[in-house]
């Protein structure tokens, strides 16, 4: 990760915590705590998320439309046990990659809710993975349609 990206992420993390997880820039954000695939060290990455159910949220591995998947995606593939900091709560989570039918349905919903996601999708030829985070501790979520 570049120094500029790390600094930007740290600013977002500080703002997230200072605002008690309130939406930023019109997006619901979570802080994903994940373990580095090679380093074994905990990482924290701010990500936009979309509720799927009361105990499940989705995140896109868009990497802002870059030609490669983001590092956090590879970390979750190697180590799917993670934590999702949503609002003022932190939930243990298990990550999985959405299967084709599930991805298609959820991606349509995400694009309806957040049309700007199309920009990242249009920037790359790769299929952007949709990652499902199953929250292992039930909490208050906004149910998806």
Keywords:
7 strands; Pnp Oxidase, Chain A; 4 helices; alpha+beta; 145 residues; seven-stranded antiparallel β-sheet
Describe the structure.
Strands 2-1-5-6-7-4-3 form a seven-stranded antiparallel β-sheet, sandwiched between helices. Strand 5 and strand 6 form a beta hairpin. The C terminus is likely disordered. 30% of the residues lie in helices and 30% in strands. The chain has a single domain, classed as Pnp Oxidase, Chain A. It is of the alpha+beta class.
Nutshell version of this structure?
The protein has 145 residues and is of the alpha+beta class. The protein has helices at 3-18, 71-78, 100-113, 117-122, and strands at residues 29-35, 42-48, 50-53, 56-60, 81-86, 89-97, 130-135. The N and C termini lie far apart (36 Å).
> Between the first and last Cα atoms, what is the distance in angstroms?
36 Å
Provide the CATH topology.
Pnp Oxidase, Chain A
Number of helices: 4
Can you identify the CATH superfamily? Electron Transport, Fmn-binding Protein, Chain A
Number of strands: 7
Mean pLDDT: 90
CATH architecture: Roll
Total domain units: 1
Blueprint (SSEs and pairs):
Layout: H1 3-18, E1 29-35, E2 42-48, E3 50-53, E4 56-60, H2 71-78, E5 81-86, E6 89-97, H3 100-113, H4 117-122, E7 130-135
Antiparallel strand pairs: 1-2, 1-5, 3-4, 4-7, 5-6, 6-7
């Amino acid at each position: 990760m570049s120094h500029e990206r790390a600094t930007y992420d740290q600013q977002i993390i500080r703002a997230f915590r200072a605002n008690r997880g309130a939406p930023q820039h019109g997006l619901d954000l979570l802080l994903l705590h994940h373990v580095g695939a090679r380093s074994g060290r905990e990482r924290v990455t701010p990500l936009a998320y979309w509720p799927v159910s009361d105990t499940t949220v989705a995140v896109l591995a868009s990497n802002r439309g870059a030609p490669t998947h983001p590092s956090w995606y590879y970390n979750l593939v190697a180590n799917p046990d993670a934590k999702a900091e949503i609002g003022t709560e932190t939930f243990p989570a298990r990550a999985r990659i959405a299967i084709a039918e599930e991805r298609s349905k959820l991606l349509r919903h995400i694009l309806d809710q957040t049309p700007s996601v199309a920009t990242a999708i249009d920037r790359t030829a790769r299929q952007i993975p949709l990652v499902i985070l199953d929250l292992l501790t039930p909490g208050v979520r906004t149910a998806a349609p």
